[in-house]
Prior knowledge:
The protein is mostly helical. The chain folds into two domains: 11-142 and 156-197, MFS general substrate transporter like domains (Growth Hormone, Chain: A, Up-down Bundle); 210-402, Up-down Bundle (Growth Hormone, Chain: A), CATH 1.20.1250.20. The chain has helices at residues 18-47, 52-68, 70-79, 82-105, 111-139, 145-174, 176-195, 209-222, 224-246, 248-255, 259-282, 288-296, 300-307, 312-340, 346-371, 377-396. It is globular, with a radius of gyration of 21 Å.
Amino acid sequence: MKTAPESTTIVRTPLRLAAFRRFVLANLISATGSAMAPLALAYSVIEQGGGAGSLGLVLATNTVPTIVFLLAGGVFADRLSRSRILFLGNLLAAAAQGALAVTVATGHATTASIAACGFVSGTAASFTVPATQGAIAQIVPAEHLQQANALLRLPSNAVKVLGPVAGGLIVAASGAAWALAWDSFTFAAAAVLLLGLRLDAPLTRATGVLVDLRAGWSGFWSRTWLWTYTAAGTVLVAAWLAGFQLLGPLVAAQRYAGARDWGLIQAAFASGLLAGTLVCLRWKPYRLLTVAVAAGGALALPLTAMACGSPLLLVLSSASLAGIGLDIAIVAWTTAFQQHVPQTEQGRMSAFNGIGERLAIPLGYLITALAARSWDTQGVLLACGGLIAAATLLNLCVPDVYRVNRLVRVEQ
C-alpha cells in the first residue's frame, strides 16, 4: 500500500514531511471558518425571523446526516483514496456554505433553505471525519503520530479562542453572510490542499460494501478496548453536553454574573485545551489508552464546582483543568487508535466510534429533560459530573485498557 512519498524517510519531526505540512495548513485554514460558522449560522436564522424552534431544526438537520451516513463514510474511507474523499467532502461543504451565504446576502434565506444547506454540510462531514484519522496514519510514521496529532490540534485550539470573537465582530459589522462566505472559502482552499496529498486507497481487494461493513463490525466488537471506550465516551460526552453546554449558562445566570462570567468560564476551558496540546508536544506516556481514559474524567471537575456553588476562581481553574484533560485524552486516544488499528480498518473503526459521540448529542439533551423534572439545575449538574466519574472509573476497570500502549520503535 502506497502512502505519502516522505513516509519511508526517517525524520525527527512530522513537520519535516511536506505532506503533513500541507495537511496542517489545510486544517488551520478550515478551522478559521469553522470557528465562525456556528455564530453566523445562528444569526442567519435570526435575521430571517426565525426563533429557537427554527434554530433547533437547522442544528438537527446538520447533525442527523453525520449519524446516518457515518458508517458509509467509514466504509469508503477504507476503500477509496482518503485524500480524494477529503477533497470532495471539503468541496461539497464549500458549495453548501457558499449557497447559504448567497441566500442570506440576497435576503432569500428561509429556515428550509438554511436547513437544506446544513444537511449537505453534515453529509460532507460524515465522509471526511472517518477519512481524516487514516490519512494522518498514512502520512506520518508511527513513532511521530502523537506529535502529529498534537500539532494538528494546536492551531485549531488557538483558533477556538479567537475565532468566535472575530466571527462576532464580522457578523455585527457586516452581517452573517460574510462570515458564511469566509467559511465557504476556507473549505475550498482546504480541498485544494488536501487533493495534493495523493494518498492511495488502503484496500486493494474488491469486496461488497455490506461485506466490508460486517467485517468492520466484527473487528470493532472483537477489540474490547475499542467498544468499551466508545460506550464510556458516549455517556461522558452526553453528560458533558448536558451539564456544561446546556446548563452551564443557566447556572452562570443564577449564581454568578451571567454572560460575563460564563464567557470567562468558556475562555478558561478553551485555554485549557490549548495548554493540553502543548503538554502533548512534550509528554509521551507509554500507557496511551489508560491516560486517555483517566484524563477525560477531568470533565467532571467544572460541573461539580458549579453544582456546589464554588467561587468563580475555583470554577475557572476547574474549567481550565477540564480543557487540559480533554485535549490530552483526545491526543492520546487518537494516537492509540492509529497505532493499534490496521490502516485497512481505520475508516470503519473510526465511524463506529464516531457514531457513539454523535448519539451523545440527543442523549445528553434527553438526560437533561428527564432529570429536570425531578431535580433542580444544581442537582442535574452534580448528576452529570457523577456520570462522567462513573463512566471513567468503569472504563478503567477494563483489563484491555492497560494493554493498548505506545508502540516503541525498534532500532535496527
